[in-house]
Design goal:
Structural class of chain B: alpha+beta
Largest sheet of chain B: 8 strands, mixed
Number of helices of chain A: 12
Mean pLDDT of chain B: 86
Largest interface: A-B, 21 and 28 residues
Oligomer: heterodimer
Number of strands of chain A: 4
Order of helices and strands of chain A: HHEEEEHHHHHHHHHH
Low-confidence stretches of chain A: none
Strand content of chain A: 5-15%
């Protein structure tokens, strides 16, 4: 039994590291992506992923891989190449890219889209929107849930009743349609950053009710435990009790909730952008990159357009493994 | 087989007894058949046609949506018909006609022995009744406007059972083409609903087959709501082929409803339907790749009559409309601004990326598919970002350090293009324009709206800045474009409901459009319309972009299939279509 729990915690660590690498990669999209995500190469629409070659037509083996340009020509793959300027995390400026080729754009690791934009670069930049919308949205709703659920559980009485009734109303809101309504009320054109904030605010604020109810339950049971009652009897203040005895129990639950909610919110962003309600063209997000699959010709012809959708599978799995581990850890702590 | 024929004969003889009077006076020997020039085919079989939506009505008097028209016109006929292939008018229910020298009086001789699909005879009374209905203001038929010439409704008079006379208040440029698209109605069937004021409700979707009577090649058999409509051969149809076989050849014609363009391509690809028109270029490519393994042929008829364009909101927003847009209209109303936008747009890129080459770039609003009317001498300035920048600079615009375009007040030039969310091609065009205009420093957003919300913004609230839209000229004749170009026209999109022309060139277009409608000399009409095209290209109220090609697909072995770029596409000669060899499997065997 202990071995099983250990394995879960182990895989949790692995998931955490893997997710960390993934998030870091999207933050460093500017450096890792060979091209600007919005530059169109109109001669190269729906180009398939570029193949890396090591052996040329004469049979000579090259240690440095090379690619054949789509418009002809042979271009060796170069590292730390100077290219389009970018910023990392909005702060560090740079213009070196990890990989690239000389000459015209010809290294499309995941092919190009309908406008000849590099799908790999868009995938990395799109991850910034989709992955962080999920993470920040989940933090927001768990944070709000933590405060409101904590208040309701700890103080009870009318505070509890009010917060829980409001939570029920929020649970009953069909959030997807709410978003349509919210989008209609906003001006036609939203800056990508505004659209991102809107998505974040809506999914975060609407989603607080479920974690709040859960946390309220935990707080309710925690404050009635013998040692808490004893501490209160010995004159401990509310703040001390919350900090010393209640919060540590709740924290594990909150983290587990966050790990469970993040993939749901990533999916929410993807769904919204897929329907054109999220971040608009030309800024990429995994959702609006997938929207092109609504077209039959794309669906039946260009498999590399599925990549953002396929990427969701490992991301979700990692989050669920992480949630499992956090749950295990929280349970161990409580007992 | 024998029982069907016997049943039919019995029904005919019963009818002859039951309906004495003029119906029984003629035998089929006196019927004046119209003999089709098309290749002689063989009878039998079924044709399944994809329709993008369910018709709203079977009533030709009020049908305006294309699915309704597609179905209704297979069951209806007009007096004089425009051949969709040659573009010439030719006799239909009117065997012949004469025009007075002043062009104001037509005399039409009706074909004798013609019967409606329920067996009732057709004569001048039906013609009188039909025009009475179309001209009745209470019925509010969309065809009514076409029958008002020089402010007066046309006057129709019966001279004898087979001769009618039509008088116009003024000579009319389209002349006898006026009669195309006016379906003749059976007064036996529709007189009662008309007198009771229920004509608009007559022939609604739920009507039973017995309640119909038309003069078209097919007649109504069955409607399965949401799924399909089945028509059957009209045994009384008035055309034969050169060998004397009665038309139409096909036994049944089935319309299936498939809403999305992609689903239409899939249904056609899988062989569930025989004809699909309005294929998108990308789906055409997918079908083309698969053609070798499947039993269909694909037809690219080249540029059609549709034109896609970009336009700016130049409506007078003083009374209504958002203030933020009113401020930007100072740019939209400047010709150099619109010229710069037009110069910066990569039309060839649109043709290549959006249409895979199956479209034609446009610099004027009449597409080259409209061979009779296009002005070929319009300049086609090549894309030039430098010249666009130069125009903007001369007009007082400047650029900041980041390359963003600023107006005279130093405000950044930013606007939003709205377009229909359901139309992936237009969304793509808008995205390409967004990128093109970035190169001259304009910051453009693209917003997609559901179709009805879009039309509401365009036609009612004027709450938009720029829009990518498409229009289709019904039959290519400039008369059908009146509502777009007249300054008070209902589709004068960039500035709706002008009380008087806002600019001198709009006043000139008004004059030219009104004049071409009454001029009878075709050469002169062409010159007048050429000038309209020139004015539009110079002043760019709309920035013409591309004209998509007309793409269709059909199951192999369909004889006489000659899709046109004009309305009714592949079905304009449905009575002549036939299956070479055996009818495809799955279709019911011929009688």
């Amino acid at each position: 039994m202990a071995g099983m729990a250990g394995m879960i915690v182990q895989s949790g660590r692995f998931a955490l590291v893997a997710l960390g690498i993934l998030y870091l990669a999207t933050i460093c999209a500017g450096f890792l992506a060979p091209y600007d995500p919005v530059t169109q190469n109109r001669e190269l629409a729906f180009a398939p992923p570029t193949r890396l070659h090591f052996v040329d037509s004469a049979g000579t083996v090259h240690l440095r891989p090379f690619v054949y340009g789509l418009a002809g020509g042979v271009y060796p793959v170069r590292f730390f190449l100077q290219g389009v300027p970018y910023r990392i995390g909005g702060i560090f400026k740079g213009d070196r890219h990890l990989v690239g080729t000389d000459g015209p754009p010809s290294l499309f690791l995941l092919g190009t889209d309908a406008y000849g934009r590099d799908q790999f670069s868009r995938f990395l930049y799109g991850g910034q929107i989709s992955l962080f919308a999920g993470l920040l949205g989940a933090s927001l709703s768990v944070g709000v849930g933590l405060v409101l659920g904590g208040l309701a559980g700890f103080f009870g009485a009318w505070i509890d009743t009010t917060i829980m009734r409001v939570a029920e109303i929020f649970l009953a809101v069909p959030w997807f349609y709410l978003l349509f309504a919210v989008r209609m009320a906003l001006p036609l054109q939203l800056e990508p950053s505004q659209a991102f904030l809107m998505i974040l605010a809506v999914i975060g604020l609407v989603g607080w009710a479920r974690p709040a109810r859960l946390i309220r339950g935990v707080v309710l049971s925690a404050k009635l435990r013998d040692y808490v009652v004893a501490a209160r009897g010995l004159g401990a203040t509310d703040a001390y009790l919350l900090r010393r005895h209640v919060l540590p129990q709740v924290l594990g639950i909150a983290l587990t909730q966050a790990a469970l909610l993040t993939p749901q919110y990533i999916l929410a962003e993807v769904t919204l952008s897929f329907f054109g309600l999220g971040v608009g063209e030309p800024v990429p997000s995994w959702g609006n990159m997938l929207a092109v699959l609504l077209r039959y010709d794309v669906l039946s012809s260009y498999w590399w357009m599925f990549v953002p959708g396929l990427a969701l599978v490992p991301v979700f799995l990692l989050y669920y493994v992480l949630a499992d581990a956090l749950h295990q850890r929280a349970a161990a702590f409580t007992v | 087989m024998t029982s069907r024929v016997a049943g039919l004969t019995l029904a005919l003889s019963l009818l002859a007894i039951a309906a004495p009077g003029h119906a029984s006076q003629q035998s089929s020997a006196t019927t004046e058949w119209l003999i089709s020039r098309a290749e002689v085919g063989r009878s039998g079989g079924q044709l399944v046609v994809i329709e993008r939506a369910e018709p709203r009505t079977f009533n030709p008097v009020i049908a305006i949506d294309s699915p309704s028209k597609d179905v209704v016109w297979r069951m209806m006929a007009d007096l004089i018909h425009i051949d969709r292939e040659t573009q010439q008018s030719e006799p239909a229910l009117a065997r012949s006609w004469t025009v007075s020298p002043d062009g104001r009086r037509f005399r039409l001789i009706l074909r004798r022995g013609v019967r409606f699909s329920n067996g009732d005879a057709f004569d001048a009374d039906d013609v009188l009744f039909s025009f009475q209905v179309y001209l009745d203001e209470k019925v509010a038929s969309p065809q009514r406007d076409l029958l008002i010439v020089g402010g007066q409704p046309i006057a129709v008079r019966k001279l004898d059972q087979y001769t009618v006379q039509v008088d116009l208040a003024e000579p009319y440029a389209v002349a006898e083409r006026l009669f195309d698209g006016i379906a003749m109605l059976p007064h036996h069937v529709l007189e009662t609903p008309y007198k009771e004021g229920r004509l608009r409700e007559a022939w609604a979707l739920g009507t039973s087959a017995q309640g119909f009577a038309g003069l078209g090649p097919f007649r109504f058999r069955e409607h399965l709501p949401g799924q399909r409509i089945t028509l059957e051969r009209n045994p009384y149809y008035w055309k034969t082929d050169r060998a004397g076989n009665h038309l139409p050849y096909l036994d049944t014609l089935v319309f299936v409803f498939v809403p999305s363009e992609d689903a239409q391509a899939v249904r056609f690809q899988s062989g569930e339907a025989d004809i699909t028109t309005r294929l998108s270029a990308t789906n055409f490519d997918v079908l083309l790749r698969d053609q070798g393994r499947r039993n269909y042929e694909l037809i690219d008829r080249g540029p059609g009559l549709d034109y896609t364009f970009l336009f700016f909101n130049q409506n007078n927003l003083a009374e209504k409309g958002p203030a933020a847009i009113a401020r930007k209209q100072a740019w939209f109303r400047q010709l150099p601004f619109r010229q710069a936008v037009s110069l910066a747009i990569d039309r060839e890129g649109i043709v290549r990326l959006v249409y895979r080459g199956r479209a034609t770039p446009l610099w004027g609003h009449v597409p080259p598919g409209n061979k009779l009317w296009v002005n070929r001498s319009l300049p086609k300035p090549a894309r030039s970002v430098e010249r666009a920048r130069q125009l903007l600079r001369t007009a007082g615009f400047s650029w900041n350090a980041g390359g963003a375009l600023l107006d005279k007040e130093g405000q950044p030039v930013e606007f939003t293009i709205v377009t229909s969310a359901g139309n992936t091609e237009r969304v793509q065009i808008a995205t390409i324009i967004q990128d093109d205009l970035k190169q001259i420093g304009m910051r453009v957003g693209v917003v997609t709206l559901e179709n009805r919300a879009l039309l509401d913004r365009l036609l009612t609230t004027s709450d938009y800045e720029a829009c990518v839209l498409g229009l289709g000229a019904g039959d290519g004749d400039p008369a059908s474009e009146m509502n777009v170009w007249l300054s008070n026209g209902a589709t004068h999109l960039w500035n709706l409901g002008e009380r008087e022309p806002a600019t001198a060139w709009e006043a000139e277009i008004d004059m030219l459009m009104r004049r071409q409608l009454v001029v009878r000399d075709v050469q002169l009409r062409k010159r007048l319309y050429d000038r309209v095209q020139e004015l539009v290209a110079q002043n760019l109220p709309i920035i013409s972009l591309v004209s998509p090609s007309v793409l269709a697909g059909a199951t192999k072995g369909l004889g006489n299939l000659r899709p046109t770029i004009f309305d009714h596409h592949a079905l304009w000669n449905v009575e002549e279509l036939y299956w070479r060899g055996r009818p495809p499997s799955g279709a019911p065997q011929p009688r």
